[in-house]
Amino acid sequence: MAVGVIFAITWALLRWKVNPTKAIAIYFIALGGASNLLDRLFRDGHVVDYLALNLSSLHTGVFNIADIAIMAGAGFLLLEELLKSRIRSSKA
After folding, report:
1. CA gap 14, 70 in Å, rounded
2. Tell me: the pLDDT tens digits for 21-72?
3. Are 30 and 69 in contact (CB under 8 A)?
4. At the N or C end, where does the chain have fewer CB atoms within 10 A?
5. In whole angstroms, what separates CA 44 from the centre of its chain?
6. Per the residue annotation, which of 22, 27, 67, 74 is the catalytic one?
7. Please, what sign has the CA dihedral across residues 30, 65, 25, 75?
8. Which residues contact 12 (CB under 8 A, 6 or more apart)?
9. Cα-flanking dihedrals φ and ψ of residue 44, to 5°?
10. pTM (2 decimals)?
């Protein structure tokens, strides 16, 4: 599976006319979603969550690496859009 992912990312970065940051962010979201979907298909509709972040009185929900990939991808897309709008407004 890892070889397929590396091939797909390399192919997309070489062929797509998309900013590399945006392409990687989209891959993070897609792969995280695919991972959670596979968990649901092969684990009786459940996703295996195994990470919990507890810092003092801050307690998060339980999550997994796929959830982190989805959130990181969304964060990269949001950051890119914010930076683009900042650059546009500074040129005006």
Report:
1. 23
2. 888 888 888 888 888 888 888 888 888 888 787 888 877 778 888 888 999 9
3. no
4. C
5. 24
6. 67
7. positive
8. 18, 23, 27
9. 55, 40
10. 0.71
Find residue 71's DSSP bridge partners. Answer: none
pLDDT digits (tens, 9 = 90+) for 16-30: 777 778 888 888 888
Q: What is the dihedral of CA 52, 55, 60, 64, to 10 degrees?
A: -30
Q: Which of 24, 30, 49, 74 is catalytic?
A: 49
Q: How far apart are CA 66 and CA 37, in angstroms?
A: 10
Rounded to whole angstroms, the Cα distance separating 1 from 46 reads 21
- Would residue 39 show up in a list of annotated catalytic residues for this protein? no
Determine the 3-state secondary structure of 52 from DSSP.
Answer: strand
Other beta carbons within 10 angstroms of residue 71's beta carbon come to 14
User: Is 49 an active-site residue?
Assistant: yes
81 is written with which tokens?
Answer: 């859009």
CB-CB neighbours of 34 under 10 Å: 14
